[in-house]
Amino acid sequence: MSKYNAIITGVGGYVPDYIMTNQELAQKVETTDEWIMTRIGIKERRILKEENEGTSFMGAKAVLQLLEKTNTNPDDVDMLICGIVTPDMQFPATANIISDKTGIKNAFGFDLNAGCSSFLYALNTASKYVESGTHKKVIVVGADKMSSITDYTDRATCPIFGDGAAAVLLEPSEDKEIGIIDTTMQVDGSGRKHLHQLAGGSQKPSSFETVLNREHFIYQEGQPVFKAAVSKMADVSVDMMKKHDIKPDKLNWFVPHQANMRIIEATAKRMGISKDIVMINIHKFGNTTSATIPLLLWEWEDKLKKGDQVIIATFGAGFAWGATYLKWAYNAK
Ligand code: UT7
Fold first, then answer.
1. Could you tell me which of 55, 31, 28 has the C-alpha nearest to residue 289?
2. Residue 282 needs a FRET pair 20 to 30 A away by CA distance; which of 46, 50, 159, 166 works?
3. Ligand 1, atom 44: nearest CA belongs to which residue?
4. What average pLDDT values come out for the chain (333 residues) when binned by 10 residues?
5. What is the per-residue burial (b if ≥16 Cβ within 10 Å, else e) of 47-80?
6. What residue's CA is closest to ligand 1, atom 14?
7. In terms of domains, do 150 and 117 share one?
8. Predicted local confidence at residue 204, as pLDDT
């Protein structure tokens, strides 16, 4: 048993100013606000329009805000992990670029790609370093510029995604009543056929042909992904409640990945919890992939209270899914 729990001690976030509405999308593809609202639950999403800026632009803004809010000297940060599927470049890691842009010089770091579960997997990975006592100030970023791989001629995928970034600071605490209590994670690589970006990797390097065939964009077969998301996210969340004997009325917050309002509602229903405790911002930010979970914590920070029981659940490309049970560690100032 480790001496420390890993606790979240602050949250920073950033979304671009530009708002892409359903009306704007309806000018690009054959769709309607009504279809997008009923089938997905998204009204608008943020898009990073700054020229020649990648995901690190947003990640760095989130980290700078986090450092300021938590009064943290960048020199004291000893690790930064970035959950991401749209890195600035194939290499080096966007975590390194964010560290460079935010004056973090004494840390090691890396990117972690687990589709929409990237932030949760990064949080769990980081928590092990903190619990072991080797690392004391660890930043976990979730950031994605999904607009860079979204095909705005494909009506089945373009309404879903948006851009954003958020980050948390993890620190050790000897108080075992707060912090990250448990995480479960699982992957099923056979799900890759339903959700992937075909070209640009080592299997199918970029060429004129791959560009002409639009193979650098998100490929998704919506229905099989939907079915798997509903069952897996509910399974891991319900199992976590059972394992820790958390009755629905004792859970304070549920923090689900924001992929589709119908997936969120179905998961909450199976958990038997009230909609009032479900964090939801999909209507205004869409699916920001690695950023959905920390953006929710960022928006809800003022409402979270020390000791609140929180379950986070995610599902995404891979397939990769999981759930984390934590007890919130502080009251916001
Ligand atoms: O975060 C990563 C994990 N991803 C997910 O969790 C996404 C899971 N999947 C979904 O959320 C849903 O499957 C989608 C939102 C992607 C699609 O919703 P759906 O209810 O599964 O629609 P569908 O693909 O079965 O399409 C139903 C109909 C089709 O028309 P027909 O063949 O019935 O005539 C589509 O062509 O809706 C049509 N359609 C649209 N119509 C208007 C598809 N996209 C649109 C659109 N506007 N944007």
1. 55
2. 50
3. 156
4. 93 98 97 97 98 97 98 98 98 98 97 98 98 97 98 97 98 96 97 97 97 97 96 97 97 98 97 97 98 98 98 97 98 87
5. bbeeeeebbbbbbbbbbbbbbebbebebeebbbb
6. 222
7. yes
8. 97
Residues 161 and 273 in one domain: no
36 C-alpha to ligand 1 centroid (Å)? 9
Residue-range definition of the domain harbouring residue 94 = 5-173
Q: How far is the CA of 226 from the centre of ligand 1 (A)?
A: 9
Instruction: Name the closest-CA residue to atom 12, ligand 1.
Output: 222
Residue with tokens 């860079």: 148
> Residue 232: which of 322, 118, 114, 293 has the closest Cα?
322
Q: How far is the CA of 40 from the centre of ligand 1 (A)?
A: 8
Q: Nearest-CA neighbor of 182 among 124, 135, 234, 143?
A: 124
Cis peptide before 92 (omega within 30 of 0): yes
Residues with CB under 6 A from ligand 1: 31, 35-36, 39-40, 116, 155-156, 159, 222-223, 225-226, 229, 259-260, 263, 287, 316
Nearest ligand 1 atom to the CA of 223 is: 13
| Per-residue pLDDT tens digits for 138-179 | 999 999 999 999 999 999 999 999 999 999 999 999 999 999
Question: pTM for this one?
Answer: 0.97
pLDDT of residue 196: 97
pLDDT of residue 26: 97
User: Rounded to whole angstroms, how far apart are CA atoms 96 and 92?
Assistant: 7
Is there a single domain that holds both residue 10 and residue 140?
yes
Domain C-terminal end among 128, 148, 173: 173
Number of domains into which the chain is organized: 2
Rounded to the nearest angstrom, the distance between the alpha carbon of 156 and the centre of ligand 1 is: 5
Q: Which residues participate in catalysis according to the annotation?
A: 116, 257, 287
Which of 39, 152, 226 gets mutated to test ligand 1 (max ligand atoms within 8 A of its CB)? 39
Look at residue 332 and tell me if it is in a domain.
Answer: no
Tell whether 122 and 146 lie within a shared domain: yes
CATH number of the domain that residue 255 is part of: 3.40.47.10
d(CA 86, CA 57): 12
Predicted local distance difference test score (pLDDT) of residue 1: 73
Domain end residue (candidates: 173, 202, 227)? 173
Question: Of ligand 1's atoms, which has the minimum distance to the CA of residue 155?
Answer: 48
